Amino acid sequence: MGTLLDVNHLVTSFRTAEGKLPAVRGVSFSVDKGETLCIVGESGCGKSITTLSVMGLLPDNGEITQGSITFQGEELTKKKEDEMRKHRGNDISMIFQEPMTALNPVFTVGYQIMEPLNLHTKLGKKEKKSRAIELLTQVGLSDPEKVLKKYPHQLSGGMRQRVMIAIALACNPSLLIADEPTTALDVTIQAQILELIDDLKEDLGMGVVMVTHDMGVVAEVADRVMVMYAGNVVETGTVEEIFETPQHPYTKGLLASVPNVDDEGHNLEAIPGSLPNLNEKISGCRFHPRCPYAMDKCKMEEPPYFQKTDQHKSKCWLHEEVASNESRQKAYS
């Protein structure tokens, strides 16, 4: 349907007393119109920093040091803040992880929904209020006129999350970025929020980038999946490929840690160890200290991407031998 967002070899670093430390290390991906890409991985693997880089909302000590971010053919990394404001909340919108901290406690819901309309449209006062009511209705909130007058603390967690979605959709964005949109919500509200985002994607033809560590959420909404570890993309593929034929040991570990309610004898498996710090120097594959299949080569050389199918690739030396065996079989067949 056409590429909306194209990120190539993105490196995002943070200035610290120890120098510049990379949090995102050469990440590349694309998102098409009407497609949902889920970015998955443990907390601290670089998922949110990747999306904040796209939005131009990095902390003061963060900066994009390499790579490009192209949105609808426009390069975003070279744009100044006032130029980015024209896109942010208009063409590209974001639902933040915790609505209680993302919403301003001293302004009403109505004021905050109408803020992007004030910035990006020329609607009159009555038209803006009508649009706000329409948005709240669209996200499934009853009595929207009453909700407009309320402050964030007067709403439940699910209602606040729906308000965040309404704000993000105010200007009919082409791309919606959702950073852990169902965190801290109960399972019933979680399912409603995910269904709402999916329905709106279908109705508006948006591209969606969803950040999550919940593989259940991924199975529910994703078209494609990008698995990140320690700032690197270690595997990408369609949702069917990732769940049915995972290739990278880290992806297999994430899937093994998902509870299986249908199997009473299923034991949860944990990935040993923890994510490396940004200043931790690890040669070779950054996952090798935690990998049960690590070889000497893994500790010495960073693996390239091995292509399984057109859309499925994995960054692991284990596939080198498989690829070599397949080549030999083809040569003798």
From TrEMBL:
Membrane topology: Peripheral membrane protein
Organism from which the protein derives: Halobacillus litoralis
Annotated protein name in UniProt: Peptide ABC transporter ATP-binding protein
Pfam family name, one: ABC_tran
Gene3D superfamilies: P-loop containing nucleotide triphosphate hydrolases
Sequence ranges assigned to domain ABC transporter in this UniProt record: 5-255
GO cellular component, one term: plasma membrane
UniProt cross-references to InterPro entries, sorted A to Z: AAA+_ATPase, ABC_Ni/Peptide_Import, ABC_transporter-like_ATP-bd, ABC_transporter-like_CS, Oligopep_ABC_C, P-loop_NTPase
Sections of the chain in a coiled coil: none
Compartments where located: Cell membrane
GO biological process, alphabetically ordered: peptide transport
GO molecular function: ATP binding; ATP hydrolysis activity
Keywords: ATP-binding, Cell membrane, Membrane, Nucleotide-binding, Transport
Family membership noted in the UniProt record: Belongs to the ABC transporter superfamily.
